[in-house]
């Protein structure tokens, strides 16, 4: 039996070189159609011989189209045309290296686990083990960044190592405790110090579990699983948000359905409002998250006290609230809310002897069609909220009076990778993704220098960077460092692509503030699922 592996690698090398050559051409150049035909022809022949059935099939299909073509190919066009081939050959080439992980479910209800440990090899190990279960994991080595991530991402389970740099895990727990206990986020402490005092202290600070290092992974997974299940049960059985004492998301579903049913039966109408505090991040940054929590609770209480008893207030997400106004028109709700904004803006908050004021913005949407679902209603009201923010905050806009084609929030997504194949694949993956609230503005760069030269980093709004760790010109770590030192550093969300298990790279990336990493070579579906989840969790 001839060993075909060697020939397969040669073939893939050839495919890669040809595609790279084409894609790196100046976009104004074109590729002769004959050239593409010849390439596909030879590909079909060789892949057949090498028993690469899938590749042969794709090549044949593409050939049918290519042969009938009479004009040359624009680079962009060719890229789209050959996309399937690119993806397939990438996965073929790395077939042995890509670990078969269960595909991450796209469901937003997938549990999100936050692991905080400064020992990077431990972090990688735990992340891999947890992800193998199909759970989503975010990791942090550094407590301050971890706290921020915790409030931004709302994980469903927290795993903390006691020995952390700059701040001990105990201090971190203490900081999160008042928030954590009310939200019921299962918290697991891991530690090398397994003595009675550490355990007692951990439990006193709200830990639900204490696991000593070295960790028995199998047992660890079982325990995490058990915590997640209890959390799920808890979430399902509770209708009131503990922190703010208003109804939660789950109850909103029921109430909304009741409202639409009534609408269908009685032919009435109601208005849904989405409310969001203005510049709330600043409150958290200036006075701390606990102060932020207090503001949230007062805000919710204020809403409850100032609305009619038939109006219902819900906490929808972190600092987003929803009010259902039965038998109310959008402009009526708008009037009510405008008055509330005025009143709320006069309430004085005090922290450490300093006083400050907070405002909120709102978007309203009058529902007239009983067949609409909650998600679409919120989405529409959210667009009005976005307009209210755009128009200067501390105000209300109505979706009913807004023109069609309302603007979505733009997320600047940049891919920096020196490998043309990967850039093409990522571009395509990103282009195929759709989000309710966010529109992606995607650009790819072959190295960090080009990225900074383009001035794209100065663009207003949030940035999502997909960053290759190793690049010949200004590598990923340098880019990361530069971005993190810039004035809009906190607008960045960064996903690093790193070599398989290169602990050192991962360690530096996380220390410098990367939000997540994926090891190369990756499975395309998995990468797509991960990007999807990260962007959905970003707001
Ligand atoms: P904008 O006026 O555009 O709304 O600006 P913003 O600063 O309020 O920005 P955004 O609404 O995007 O930020 C929400 C922040 O709320 C980010 C997150 O850390 C914080 N947050 C979310 N949930 C909680 C929570 O339960 N407690 C605290 N303290 N903060 C939270
Ligand atoms: Mg806000």
UniProtKB/TrEMBL annotation:
NCBIfam families named among the record's database cross-references: GGDEF (TIGR00254)
The enzyme's E.C. designation: 2.7.7.65
InterPro entries documented for this protein: CheY-like_superfamily (IPR011006), Diguanylate_Cyclase (IPR050469), GGDEF_dom (IPR000160), HPT_dom_sf (IPR036641), Nucleotide_cyclase (IPR029787), Rev_trsase/Diguanyl_cyclase (IPR043128), Sig_transdc_His_kin_Hpt_dom (IPR008207), Sig_transdc_resp-reg_receiver (IPR001789)
Enzyme class: transferase
Cross-referenced SUPFAM superfamilies: CheY-like (SSF52172), Histidine-containing phosphotransfer domain, HPT domain (SSF47226), Nucleotide cyclase (SSF55073)
PROSITE patterns: GGDEF, RESPONSE_REGULATORY
UniProt signal peptide: none
Name under which the protein is recorded: Diguanylate cyclase
Keyword Phosphoprotein: yes
Coiled coil: none
The keyword Nucleus is annotated on this UniProt entry: no
One example GO MF annotation: diguanylate cyclase activity
Organism whose genome encodes this protein: Robertmurraya mangrovi
Annotated keywords: Nucleotidyltransferase, Phosphoprotein, Transferase
Modified residues (4-aspartylphosphate): 161, 468
């Amino acid at each position: 039996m001839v060993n075909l592996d060697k020939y397969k690698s040669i073939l893939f090398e050839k495919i890669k070189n040809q595609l790279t050559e084409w894609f790196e051409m100046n976009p104004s150049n074109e590729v002769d159609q004959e050239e593409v035909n010849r390439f596909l022809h030879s590909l079909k022949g060789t892949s057949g011989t090498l028993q690469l059935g899938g590749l042969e099939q794709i090549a044949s299909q593409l050939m049918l189209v290519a042969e009938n073509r009479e004009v040359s190919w624009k680079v962009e066009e060719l890229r789209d045309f050959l996309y399937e081939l690119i993806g397939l050959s990438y996965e073929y080439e790395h077939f042995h290296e890509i670990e078969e992980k269960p595909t991450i479910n796209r469901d937003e209800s997938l549990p999100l686990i936050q692991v905080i440990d400064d020992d990077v090899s431990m972090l990688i190990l735990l992340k891999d083990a947890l992800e193998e279960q199909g759970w989503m994991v975010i990791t942090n080595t550094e407590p301050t960044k971890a706290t921020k991530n915790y409030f931004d991402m709302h994980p469903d389970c927290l795993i903390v190592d006691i020995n952390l740099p700059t701040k001990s895990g105990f201090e971190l727990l203490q900081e999160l405790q008042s928030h954590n206990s009310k939200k019921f986020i299962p918290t697991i402490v891991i530690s090398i110090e397994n003595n009675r005092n550490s355990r007692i202290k951990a439990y006193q600070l709200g830990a639900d579990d204490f696991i000593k290092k070295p960790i028995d992974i199998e047992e660890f997974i079982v325990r995490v699983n058990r915590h997640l299940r209890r959390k799920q049960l808890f979430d399902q059985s509770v209708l009131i948000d503990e922190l703010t004492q208003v109804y939660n998301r789950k109850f909103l579903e029921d109430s909304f359905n009741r409202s639409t049913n009534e609408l269908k039966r009685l032919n009435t109408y109601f208005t849904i409002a989405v409310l969001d505090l203005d510049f709330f991040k600043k409150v958290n940054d200036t006075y701390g998250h606990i102060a932020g929590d207090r503001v949230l609770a007062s805000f919710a209480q204020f809403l409850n006290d100032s609305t009619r008893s038939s109006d219902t207030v819900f906490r929808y997400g972190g600092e987003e609230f929803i009010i259902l106004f039965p038998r109310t028109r959008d402009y009526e709700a708008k009037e009510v809310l405008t008055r509330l904004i005025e009143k709320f803006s006069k309430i004085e908050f005090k922290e450490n002897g300093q006083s400050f004021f907070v405002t909120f913005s709102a978007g309203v949407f009058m529902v007239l069609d009983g067949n609409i679902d909650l998600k679409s209603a919120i989405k529409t009201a959210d667009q009005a909220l976005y307009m209210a923010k755009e128009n200067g905050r501390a105000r209300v806009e109505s979706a009913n009076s807004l023109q069609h084609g309302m603007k979505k929030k733009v997320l600047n997504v940049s891919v920096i990778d020196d490998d043309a194949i990967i850039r093409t694949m990522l571009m395509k993956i990103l282009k195929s993704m759709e989000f309710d609230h966010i529109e992606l503005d995607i650009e790819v760069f072959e190295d960090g220098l080009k990225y900074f030269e383009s001035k794209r980093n100065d663009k207003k709004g949030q940035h999502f960077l997909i960053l290759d760790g190793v690049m010949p010109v200004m590598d990923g770590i340098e880019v990361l460092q530069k971005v993190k030192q810039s004035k809009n550093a906190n607008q960045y969300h960064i996903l690093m692509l790193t070599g398989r298990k290169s602990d050192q790279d991962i360690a530096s990336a996380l220390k410098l503030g990367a939000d997540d990493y994926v090891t190369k070579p990756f499975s395309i579906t998995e990468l797509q699922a991960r990007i999807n989840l990260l962007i959905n969790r970003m707001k």
